[in-house]
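Pasting as-is:
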Amino acid sequence: DLWEIVARKKAHFPMSYQVLSQIVLYMIENLNLAPSTLHDYVLAIEAMHNHRRVSTAGLQDKRIWDLVQGYYEIKGVGTSEIMDWSTLRQFRRELIADTTLCYEDEKAVWTAVLFSYWGRIRLGDFLPSDDHHSLDKRLAWKDIDRRSKDRLTVDLHIPSQEDRDAGISSAVKRLHRRSLPKYCPIYNLDRLYEIKNRRTHIRQSEPVFKLESGRFIRLPLIRQLFQRFEENRRASGSKTDRTHRISPLLTANPELLTEAEIRSAARH
């Protein structure tokens, strides 16, 4: 029980980063939690602070969320749930080398992938499957709340199936500034905004992830890029740490896969 853990650590509100990190590390080391449960526990601690109307400065320290992210990575080893750091870096190299996208489109696609990676958000939760459906999945600039220069929240109007089963009608995800700018979702979002705003004044109701042509970034485009990435990797003879023959991000987002590919992933 979360209350028992807080009491055991003799934590007082508001909790400092030092106390919060001890609580998170205790849960990681002593409880066999699902990564999503650990994430929910940290959010519950934040709710406790908000209920008491005390400072949440300790929870705004990105090192707390780095611990949660690291736990996702540890628990994800050998599974298809997570796009690992190596795959993220390799995809970036492939994206930069791709000649079919202009700089603005490359930046938009890369920022979308970073949102998915750092926010633990399925691409299908904020990208439409085509130009005519899933209108409510198009993340607009107004859905992004800049809490500070190093922290923002994203309001997803379409929660995950797990959230829907729990009766949650929307989901808020938190993103923090990372130390490496090229892998930082906030840095890349700011650059994307600057690029688009120079070309045409951005309205807050506009979707964040759309191409220079005005068309939306759709799941089939991401799928094509990842397929090309996999083909290039196989052609170069490079090996993956995973047993799956398809990208971890694709397997984490089943809407990008065909039934045959899902069956293939299950066999391998």
